[in-house]
Design goal:
- The chain is built from 32 helices and 6 strands.
- It is mostly helical.
- Among the domains are: 117 residues, no CATH class; 206 residues, no CATH class.
- The N and C termini lie far apart (63 Å).
- One of its GO terms (biological process) is regulation of phenylpropanoid metabolic process.
- It comes from Aegilops tauschii subsp. strangulata.
Length: 763
């Protein structure tokens, strides 16, 4: 229904002017529809029904059309009860941006060594490709199942492929946004049209800025890389508002932001003036929020701006709410088995330590830098406290106030100026997620400060804000990540107090995910580690470390299951023990848990690394690096668990179909090469060309189990494996007396293996 409403049929006159008039005639209707689908939960509903690509495809023509129309000459603000070209464009544009999440921290756009992104990003190109693949393969579309609904058939919706090149204005902004993320802005000449537009915008938003009685129109001269020569006067001409199409306006916004931020950095304008100017910019064209978030998030990640004190004078202060939120975060994480350190010390012992260190160190050296290092070594927080002391000019009397990088302080100060009005949901949907992602993309512990500021503004959001703040420690602390992963596995395998058996105890998804997160008196304790993992795993920056930790936890749990089975009953009397199949079943479930945790945290790239690097390296490493003297049962369960985890990771990501409609996507098309590389590794070891370091029992169980799972559940994978590789693996399996498995492997290798199957049968 939403897709059809956002796709009004164009008139027979297909000219550009005819299309513009048609959209203008439906401006009020489209504006109401866009406001209706811009509430916070809309994106989650679209995603649940698999309609994100289709909704995005319907929004692109609206953005292109309304962004190419100039507003009326008397336009002043969009955030009022009026329908304008700017308001329709802003609603459509910000809704589109929410669908492909452009406000992710910029480091997620970095390229890895294999030519793919660090994580699977939902980019505009990806959505266009998904939409076109559904048209080419209509049976794969989620909408095909709803064609008989009472709302009418979705076949009535235009089903022509779309391409970004069909929307030149949108494509130009898309490229500029990527360039803004990738590098700093370059200088512009006075004759450049974009520079002229930037001057007009600066004239509009800076007309009220004064400092010490001097009009701050020369703010842009503070930066050589920003808009230069934009000297503003107090004449009436400076108050003229630019009546430009939205796309031309947006093109100049990053240069305006760079000029304003640099002027604030050099003290040419106050922080309050900068916040007011940014709010005026958003009021005039709400779509400017896209450029604001994109630019500030890029600058936050670069880490080149000084930190500013959130002391309540120049910038808003979090006050006592900061320590309250930090204490609650520590309590929540502690209930899930994760211990963290405080980022904002406030105790008397901290000040006492600093005072004594000052007296001691200043008698020995004159360098304040040496002092900061000594303080940091004592507090195990060198990264944070050395920066705090260096930038804030720590004084004995005042202590250390909370601080944020300048772009982060500017962004959070802007966001708290917006009213909590339902008509502004299309703005709140952007700024809320943007703040969380920007905080996660910075090495500075900023999320508790942001949460404290928003808690003061909206007290009823307290529980939600606290849960958002629990992501903060995991972005910079590997030890916290390791504790959380270990806690997930421990809760999954947790024994029931009333049961003496480690295998039949009550455990599983219920213990991992918990029953609820809130109660009558607020948040419910203890908080389940699985729930915390799902909320925080996107902030894990070192996903390679996560992969290794999860794999080692799977191995360690398998070892514990084997020891639990061996310790039950008399050592020489098998009848007194529970069946080994119970331990094997639990090992398989642990492997499935590990696969799920890994796929959620790392996505396609991490699965590829697991196949090509992590698991082969572990199998080639010395036995002492895995587990010392595991024993035959533990060795078998370890190999069994590793094979299950590898198989589950691949099947969760790639599925079993060879001709899937979305196999054209790059991360799915890698499957033949990734699986083929791993099968080549197995064949090389079985052929004697590669020497192993792991226990032979572990290797045998691993190969047998992995080949069995592939043969039984995803035989289509084998058709992409080289014939020579399949033959070598089959020979190795026969040497272990796995004749049936070797034959099944060759039978599912496709036409190329027919002769090998016949030779095997004749032997």
């Amino acid at each position: 229904m939403v897709v059809k409403l956002l796709s009004p049929p164009l008139p027979s006159d297909s000219s550009l002017q005819g299309s513009m008039s048609h959209y203008l005639s439906q401006k009020s209707t489209l504006n109401a529809i866009l406001l209706g689908v811009s509430y916070v939960d809309a994106v989650h509903i679209f995603s649940l029904y698999g309609m994100v690509p289709d909704v995005a495809a319907a929004l692109m023509p609206l953005c292109e059309a309304f962004g190419s129309m100039p507003p009326p000459s008397n336009h002043r603000s969009t955030i009022v009860d009026e329908t304008s070209v700017y308001s329709v464009f802003s609603c459509a544009f910000l809704c589109l941006l929410r669908l492909w999440k452009f406000y992710k921290p910029p480091q997620e756009y970095c390229l890895a060594g294999r030519g793919g992104s660090v994580r699977l990003e939902l980019t505009l190109d990806y959505l266009v490709l998904m939409h076109n693949s559904r048209i080419e393969f209509p049976n794969s579309s989620a909408t095909s199942t709803n064609s008989g609904s009472s709302t009418g058939s979705f076949d009535e919706v235009p089903t022509q492929p779309i391409y970004i090149d069909s929307f030149p204005k949108l494509r130009a902004w898309y490229i500029q946004n990527q360039a803004c993320i990738a590098s700093t802005l370059s200088g512009l000449g006075n004759t450049n049209p974009v520079h002229q537009v930037a001057n007009k915008i600066l004239s509009m938003i800076c007309r009220k800025m004064t400092k010490s009685g001097v009009v701050s129109g020369n703010l842009s001269s503070a930066s050589s890389s920003s808009v230069s020569g934009s000297s503003l006067s107090t004449s009436d001409d400076s108050y003229q508002r630019p009546t430009l199409p939205a796309w031309e306006f947006l093109e100049a916004v990053p240069y305006v932001l760079e000029a304003v931020l640099t002027a604030c950095y050099h003290g040419r304008i106050s922080s309050r003036d900068m916040t007011t100017s940014l709010r005026d910019l958003v009021d005039f064209l709400p779509a400017s929020l896209a450029a604001i978030v994109s630019y500030f998030s890029a600058e936050i990640t670069r880490g080149i701006w000084k930190a500013v004190p959130m002391n309540g004078t120049e910038w808003p202060s979090p006050g006592a709410a900061l320590h309250s939120i930090e204490d609650e975060v520590k309590e929540i994480l502690a209930s899930a088995g994760v211990q963290i350190h405080s980022c904002y010390p406030r105790t008397a012992c901290f000040l006492f330590l600093c005072i004594n260190l000052v007296a001691l160190v200043h008698t020995m050296c004159d360098s304040l830098q040496v002092f900061s290092i000594i303080v940091a070594e004592n507090l195990h927080q060198y990264l944070y406290y050395s920066v705090l002391i260096e930038n804030f000019h720590f004084t004995l009397a005042g202590g250390v106030p909370p601080m944020l990088p300048l772009p982060m302080a500017a962004l959070v100060s802007l966001t708290i100026t917006f009213k909590l009005d339902r008509s502004l949901d299309y703005i709140h949907g952007i700024i809320g997620q943007a703040l969380e992602n920007c905080a996660g993309g910075s090495s500075w512990p900023s999320m508790p400060i942001i949460g404290a500021l928003w808690t003061q503004k909206v007290r009823r959001w307290h529980d939600f804000i606290v849960l958002s703040c629990i992501r903060s420690p995991f972005g910079r602390d590997k030890d916290a990540v390791a504790q959380l992963i270990q806690s997930c596995f421990s809760s999954f395998l947790r024994s029931s107090p009333s049961s003496g058996s480690d295998i039949t105890a009550s455990r599983g998804v219920g213990a991992l995910m918990g029953e609820s997160i809130t109660g009558h008196q607020g948040l419910h304790f203890p908080m389940a580690p699985g729930f915390i993992y799902l909320r925080t795993c996107r902030t894990f920056h070192d996903t390679y470390f996560v992969s290794e930790m999860i794999l080692r936890q799977v191995i360690d749990c398998s070892h514990k299951l084997a020891n639990g089975w061996s310790s039950n009953g008399p050592p020489h009397l098998k009848s007194g023990r529970p069946p080994l199949s119970g331990a094997a079943s639990m090992a398989s479930q642990v492997a499935m848990l590990g696969a799920g945790l890994l796929c959620v945290a790392g996505g396609p790239l991490l699965v590829q690394v697991l196949y090509e690097e992590t698991l082969p390296t572990l199998l080639l490493s010395a036995q002492e690096q895995m587990l010392e003297d595991p024993g035959p049962v533990a060795s078998t369960l370890q190999g069994y668990a590793m094979a299950n985890m590898l198989f589950f990771c691949g099947s969760l990501l790639w599925g079993s179909e060879k001709t899937s409609p979305i196999m054209k996507l790059s991360f799915l098309s890698r499957r033949p090469r990734v699986v083929g590389t791993h099968m080549d590794f197995i064949a090389g070891v079985l052929d004697g060309h590669i020497l192993l370091g792991c226990d032979p029992g572990t290797w045998k169980a691993y190969v047998s189990c992995f080949v069995f799972l592939v043969v039984k559940f995803v035989p289509t994978w084998l058709r992409d494996i080289k014939l020579d590789t399949l033959k070598k693996i089959a020979v190795g399996l026969r040497s272990w007396h796995e004749h049936d498995l070797a034959l099944s492997l060759l039978e599912r290798g496709g036409p190329k293996t027919i002769s090998a199957v016949v030779e095997t049968l004749l032997q």
